[in-house]
Amino acid sequence: MPSPLSHAADLARHLAHRRARDRDNAQALTELLHRPLPLAPGLDLQWLGTAGYRLTHQGHTLLIDPYWSRAPLSSLLLRTPALPDPSLIDRYLPDPGTVVGVLVGHGHFDHALDAPALARRFGCPVHGSTSVARLMALHGLAHRAVTVQPHHPYELGPFTVTFVPSRHSRIPLGTKVPWPGDTDCTRLGQLAPQRYGCGQTWGIHIDIDGYTLYHQGSADLVDDQIRHRDVDLFLAGIAGRSVTPRYWQRILPLLRPKALVPCHYDDFLRPLHAPLRFTVDVRLSDLQDEIAAVDPDIALAALPAPKGTP
């Protein structure tokens, strides 16, 4: 396993050539956006930015890690509260149909921040960890929180959802999980980005009439907990994969996906209306070769960035 010094040197090389890297990333993204992505009949899949997705089938909508209320860098640096912005939910989710649930893979702000506002607006449950349940309670919505059990199937409209124990990648430099515990604030005014505790991390398996997806918001895993095979689509968070030993070599032979869509490559401290920028050292341009080295039959594609209503 590479040492923190090795990761630091690699990061320094990236920063020294960031403009060229970002041009390569942008070209790779353009190519991926033009590739077809076979979905189940009647299933609409939208990327919401970061690790977020909207799945709609038969008029029912399921949201995964929705994060429209982007916490700015200043909030992170000054430790000011990061809270949902209802106007952005209006802008980016104008016609959701029947929202049957919100799924949260772990408790960090870039995955969980908007979940309470969605539960309040649509009267839907939020499924996730103890950390996410504590966040919901802070918003006065403990009754909408479902603290999930591993491998238990949850029926949400036409979706059957299973949570798989997983791990968060150790960033920065492969040393530790950021903000690893459960959220422990006692009032909303304390909810700076750093106070959103990671808590238990989950992979999420979703079945829609036999069509299956697997969502991994952070690039690490617990190998022997993955029980689902031959998934149709792997929604793969790719930030942090370089610090996880043999990540693709471990997870791809377990899931055996037919297709893979990357996510969590955008700068999640920028507002969604701003032009997309890539997060530091994400190396989207290397993804095709990385996947092909493990299984050249896996199809790669990308989904467009979210566009809100005017």
From TrEMBL:
InterPro entries: Metallo-B-lactamas, RibonucZ/Hydroxyglut_hydro, UPF0173_UPF0282_UlaG_hydrolase. Residues 49-264 form the Metallo-beta-lactamase domain. It comes from the Bacteria. Pfam families: Lactamase_B_2 (PF12706). This is L-ascorbate metabolism protein UlaG (Beta-lactamase superfamily). It comes from Nocardiopsis algeriensis.
